[in-house]
Input
Amino acid sequence: MKNLRLRRLHILQALPILLVVPGTGSAESCHAPSRPFVPSDSQLVRDYRDVIRQDFEDYISDIQSYFRCLDEERTRAFEEARAVSEDYDRFLQLVGD
Output
């Protein structure tokens, strides 16, 4: 029983590492948006202010979507890791380790 508790502790300690290391899971791809470009030439800024403003508004919208994606993926990954940990516990009980 002590050995099983020790293994569970090791599994829980390994979870953060497993969540950081890239793997071949079913992870969703969250792509960070590119930063808006602002020309250093003030005349260009004035000439293209509407386009630049729209780029910033698009970026703000896209970065919010990106943060939501990361939150959803983190939740999914933790849930999957918890389920895998439970599966491993059942496996250890079956093999008697």
